[in-house]
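Deliverable D5.2: sample structural annotation.
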Amino acid sequence: MPLVNVFERINSEYYQLTSAEKKVADYAVIHQQQTQFMSISELAEEAGVAEATISRFCKRLGYKGYSAFKLAIANATAGRMDHSAAEAGELEEEDSVEGMCRAVYRSDSEALAQTLELIQADAVRKAADMIVSAGRVLCMGQGGSMILSQECAHLFSTIQLNFTAVMDSHLQAIAASQLTPGDLVIYFSYSGSTKELMKNLQIIRDRKARIILVTRFPKSPGAAYADIVLQCGSREGPLQGGSVAARIAQLYLMDVLFHEVCRRDREGCRARQELVAEVLSDKHI
């Protein structure tokens, strides 16, 4: 039986599932508490699939059968209240402001906790090596991820001069076409499967530049192009595109990577940060 949390395994394997198996995955993630009490026939009916599909789904995740899968769900949700709605950013109409604040706090905290569990130290070290040795570093993303790419370039520009955020999708394609093998692209994409992402990654790969992808899904189509994948936590529902919890998780990864780069040259980074602070001090009243 897999040692990792069953829901993390589902997220990791999601893009390898068939369309029918994805229905089972979607139902299990959204209805975590209910699924552990269902028979295989009940789950099949609710998910709209055949029982054989559920059996294949369980084995694909590494479980011997449906009973083992249900046990894994029970272990993953043990000792927890049913926070599935809160984790998806959904609140009950009768919730008080205080209750809403606690629910949002739980959701954001859970995203950080998940990300901490998913961090692979070796991937962080290798990503830092790429940043330190890169000629140019371009930060990219689409939609809400584009904002994260801006924040990444802003943060790293306090210690390195070679970071640039490229915003427009046309400009991204143009910039990607001018890359060299010594350059690096840090790409933010929660799904790892948008059309613009795939087009740009193909250009970047053709130019033989290196790629760090920050995503929720390490086996997404975009991850296949990346040299390094940094996986964030936060289970985002279909109506939660660009949720704050997911952004917090990605910002945390960015901060971890930033501090790992700083560890390579503590004195140099400190000196550059002091210069930046001195220049910006004049901007304040």
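Annotation notes: The chain is about 60% helix and 10% strand. The first strand starts at residue 137 and ends at 141.
The annotation will be released with the project's public dataset once the embargo ends.
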